[in-house]
Design brief:
Length: 454
């Protein structure tokens, strides 16, 4: 056998290992380095390696293709360094997060121990320049959101609220002094952030309808009102609060510190989605904020909208991750589960579900990839981000429900993961703008008519 053929066969064998196994192998050895080394092995060494890999297979078992939700190999469009970060996050999620999420989801609690572990990854504040942030392209923010949500949507929401919404508000709307005070600590996750925009009476209509007020009394700003659904708010060190100025009528942003006596946060109980995320109702009662903690460059709702535009692309990528996690879990299950004496993956109707899932997933991934490229080229508009959020959250719902279907009864059991994806998809579907609101944003852009209120 020629050396070339042996290298090719070895590579093919490695390709047949599923993603879980690859992630485990990659933990022990640097796969990229290993592939380089393979080319240098001599004939005898290669034959030995192939024998070793082959003996892993059970008798009678035929080669099954890998479980990989990246069907169009978008990973090949990443640089070596970006790919390394993607795999680092994937391994972290598999090893540190997957084993504990179902338990915490069930208990409706947040696993605080993961914050310390997250710090080591150095992926917080992905696209920001300076302040100890990685300053990577927006594409990597999307890839990371996908990798985290692929294992757990709650953890990706915790991460997105902190790194995207909270840090993004400070990065885009804060003064230099405010950025210096908060961003380096938040990048290291020594301080955790939250973002308070939605209210009990105002969700979709926040642009013109905020009821939370602020008023300058000559010395301090006084905030009054309530916020609802605010992720991380039960434990965050700093909560970005958006409020309407009673004098100018304009929306302003504030950095509210958790120890402020006018601030209180009560956990929302009994959610059927994202149970790990600690969402809260915040009450602001004559909450005094010094001028130094007013976001100095947030002067109207347009500034709030700039933050949302930046993060909405990340939410579309979360939907991709959720769909990918559900698809890969379902595919794995169908290969193992046997009925009528055969793996259910061999049935035509099951394959139809799998292919529908994969086509949705692939369309979502390629759309988001282009979305991030546009964001990196500074071409992203509100309607671009909204279209991706609408499309991906609809397709995600379809994917998770098919995943649940091919698992039969096990599709509603937490231990098979798919049930968690089904439930969590419902939160992605609603937050950062519902389907209707994001459709209205796109509709206005393509027709020239605003149909928000008839
Ligand atoms: C799990 C979770 C986490 C969240 N985290 C945060 C957070 O950290 N910070 C934060 O500020 N917010 C957060 N939110 C709030 C989220 O952004 C809002 O739920 C969302 O914007 C929708 O608002 P709403 O729930 O009040 O629904 P509503 O605005 O009451 O909408 C109800 C329905 O009416 C439809 N509708 C409204 N207006 C129109 C219209 N003009 N035309 C047609 N249909 C319309 C909507 O599309 C929806 O179907 C979170 C929400 C959830 C569920």
């Amino acid at each position: 056998m020629s050396l070339f053929k042996k290298v090719r066969d070895t590579v093919n064998l490695l390709k047949s290992v599923d993603l879980d196994q690859l992630a485990k192998i990659n933990q022990k050895i640097d796969l990229a380095e290993a592939m380089k080394t393979l080319g240098k092995l001599d004939d005898r060494q290669l034959t030995g390696l192939m024998k070793m890999l082959k003996t892993k297979k059970k008798k009678g078992q035929h080669d099954l293709p890998p479980i990989d939700g990246d069907f169009y190999n978008l990973d090949l469009k990443l640089t070596d360094e970006q790919r390394e970060i993607q795999l680092k996050v994937r391994n972290f999620m598999e090893d540190e997060i997957r084993p504990l999420v179902n338990e915490y989801w069930k208990k409706d609690q947040f696993p605080f121990e993961v914050i310390k572990k997250f710090r080591k990854l150095n992926i917080v504040g992905v696209p920001y320049e300076g302040y100890g942030c990685p300053n990577m392209p927006f594409l990597m923010e999307g890839i990371i959101a996908q990798e985290i949500a692929r294992v757990d949507v709650s953890i990706s929401t915790f991460f997105g609220v902190h790194s995207g919404l909270a840090m993004g508000s400070i990065y885009l709307c804060g003064s230099e002094e405010q950025k210096q005070e908060w961003l380096p600590q938040m990048a290291k996750m020594e301080k955790i952030g939250a973002f308070g925009l939605t209210e009990p009476n105002v969700g979709s209509g926040v642009a013109g309808g905020l009821e939370t007020t602020c008023k300058f009394d000559g010395e301090n700003w006084i905030l009054n009102g309530q916020k609802k659904w605010i992720g991380n708010a039960t434990f965050a060190d700093v909560i970005v609060i958006w409020a309407r100025d009673l004098d100018s009528g304009r929306v302003k942003g504030f950095l509210v510190r958790k120890e402020n006596p006018g601030f209180s946060a009560e956990k929302i109980q009994d959610k059927m989605a994202l149970r790990i995320v600690q969402n809260a109702i915040i009450t602001l009662k004559d909450c005094k904020i010094p001028e130094g903690d007013r976001l100095q460059n947030a002067n109207s709702f347009k500034d709030t909208a700039n933050v949302l535009r930046m993060t909405r692309a990340g939410v579309a990528w979360q939907a991709v991750g959720c769909a990918r996690g559900a698809y890969e879990s379902a595919l794995k299950y169908t290969k193992k589960r046997e009925q009528f004496g055969r793996p259910i993956a061999s049935f035509q109707l099951i394959q139809n579900h799998l292919v529908e899932m994969l086509s949705n997933l692939t369309a979502m991934q390629t759309l988001c990839f282009r979305l991030s490229e546009m964001q990196d080229q500074d071409m992203l508009t509100d309607e671009h981000a909204s279209l991706a959020k609408v499309y991906c959250s609809m397709r995600m719902r379809d994917v998770v429900s098919r995943a649940r279907e091919v698992l039969g009864g096990n599709g509603i059991l937490l231990e098979y993961d798919v049930a968690r994806f089904v439930a969590d998809a419902e939160a992605i579907y609603s937050y950062e703008g519902t389907k209707e609101i994001n459709s209205l944003i796109v509709g206005r852009a393509i027709t020239g008519y605003s149909a928000f209120v008839s």
